[in-house]
Amino acid sequence: MTSIRFGIIGAGAVSDYHHWPGIEIDPRAELVAICDPDERLLEQRQSDWGSTRCYTQAEEIAVDPDVDAVIIATPNFTHKPIALACIAAGKHVMCEKPLGLDFSESLEMYRAAHDKGVRHMTAFTYRFAPSMRYLKDLVSTGALGEPRHFRSQRFLDLPETSWGWRQSKKLAGAGDLFDMTIHRIDFAQDLMGPIASVCGSIAQYALRDKTEDGRDCPPSDVDDWSALIARFTGGAVGVFEGSTVMKGYHFGGFGREWAEVNGSEGSAVYQLTEPNTILIGKGGESLQQVDVPAEYLTPAGSPRDPAEGVPATVFRYDLVYEFVSAIVEGRDAIPGFDHGAAAQRVADAVLQSHEAGTWVELPQELE
Q1: How far apart are CA 5 and CA 115, in angstroms?
Q2: What is the distance of C-alpha 210 from the center of its chain?
Q3: Which domains, ranges and CATH numbers included, belong to the chain?
């Protein structure tokens, strides 16, 4: 079988953490090129990942005829131009979230990929957690009854030093809202259906005007706390909260990730630190922790051994498996750029709601 030849654009921690390992374990994929402006990092990755072609400009990898698909893990403000260049060259594209700096950028990326006929995917990692996959089945099969309520908390205890480009609205679009809460928006819509309206707010507490080594830097102008109340088109409601400055929520760097669905007959809870188990309770009972059934631990056919590695880390490798499978099978990848755009429209509405102090209604078709 011919391998899907990958190029990774952006060789930083995210790519090292789950994109490269996902390629490495999939026999249908191979890494043939790396692109990053940091030549020292390229040298390090050559040692870490194996010898490949190296580029410092994304335009070079976009036109490389030996690259079939790319993974974009670069700063947010670069996503759109890089993706459009790769799409124009006929490459399949997976891109980190948020797709763009706002909904209009992400919609442009989706339309370009759709019109070109290439496979496209948004790197919404948490959809692939075993307990999240099982939770979706519980909701979709009616095991919890009629879904009434969704709730999520994503709390991190991060240092209040510089985030680099991530603390600039011009370069990142937003802070916690676009970095973390947007994941929750995505899987909430996957579980509960489209969000019809939101009332949201953001806040900033950390100035982040110092680097890790104590040097002065331009202060942050993005949020480090975000929250929203949502009404879903199906009648359910939701409450979301996320923050990077929650003291005492370190938990080995994973922080607190809690997401639950409450239905007319029962409730179920996903936790990042326990992704191979789930909390379930029916009416009149208390939530009990049970193992996720074996068939939900990995997607069918995945080369990943669910018994190996740190559970809260290794499920992320299945992101590449889904992308490769979509390419090989000639089908849409899930979640696609359309899902990325849909989540970003909600996140944009949170910012709009915060500024206006009102509820914001959302259209139900990508426009």
Answers
A1: 22
A2: 28
A3: 4-124 (3.40.50.720), 126-336+343-356 (3.30.360.10)
